Amino acid sequence: MSIISDNQWCFACGTQNPIGLHLKFKKVENKYVTTFTAGPEHQSYNGVVHGGIISTLLDETMARYITEQDVKAVTARLDIRYRAATPIGELLTISGWVVGKRRNMYEMAGEIRLSDGTVTVESKGMIAVIEDVQK
User: Fold this and answer.
1) Among 7, 74, 86, 90, which one has the highest count of C-beta atoms within 10 angstroms of its own C-beta?
2) What is the pLDDT confidence band of residue 6, given thresholds at 50, 70 and 90?
3) CA nearest 113: which of 43, 39, 45, 61?
4) Ramachandran bin of 71, using left for φ above 0, alpha for ψ from -120 to 50, beta for the remaining angles
5) Looking at residue 87, what DSSP letter applies?
6) For residue 134, what are the CA distances in angstroms to 2, 72, 121?
7) What sign results for the dihedral spanned by CA atoms 44, 46, 47, 48?
């Protein structure tokens, strides 16, 4: 059983979590990508996605790139740069990709885009490999 299928209660991607985000991912070129449309239950200020939901979307997407390789990994650092308000009710595209690797640490980048291509949030992070499951 893979790491992903063992975690069906994950808030971001778990299929059995009734209050989760139920994200589904695909690899597009060198990125992992998901889409999400936030509802009023995900808002901060009126009409704006809560920053905690935004960081969850980016954290999960960047880490997913590594965990899909059947490697147990955790986020060691996550830096978020909010460039513009991210609106409720609009389809968001969240992407994550590898920037570099040193020993057991992957340097990652990510972003959230609106359907018109506007980047509302950028992120950088470090993902630490804690176990290679394939061994």
Assistant:
1) 86
2) low
3) 61
4) beta
5) B
6) 10, 10, 34
7) negative
CA distances to 33, 49, 87, 121 from 92, rounded to whole Å, are 10, 11, 9, 11
Q: What CATH class does 26-132 carry?
A: alpha beta
pLDDT (average), residues 80-109: 97
**Which residues are within 8 A (CB) of 30 and not within 5 positions of it... i.e. 6 or more apart?**
97, 98
For 5-67, the DSSP string reads TT-TT-TTT-SS-TTS-----EEETTEEEEEEE--GGGBSSTTBB-HHHHHHHHHHHHHHHHH
N residues, the chain: 135
Supply the pTM of this predicted model: 0.88
Query: Are the CB atoms for 50 and 25 separated by under 8 Å?
Result: no
The DSSP secondary-structure symbol of 90 reads: S
Residue found under tokens 């299929």: 15
Give φ, ψ of 42 to 5 degrees. Answer: -105, 10
Three-state DSSP at 86 gives coil
CB atoms within 10 A of CB 119: 14
Domain boundaries of the chain, sorted by first residue: 26-132
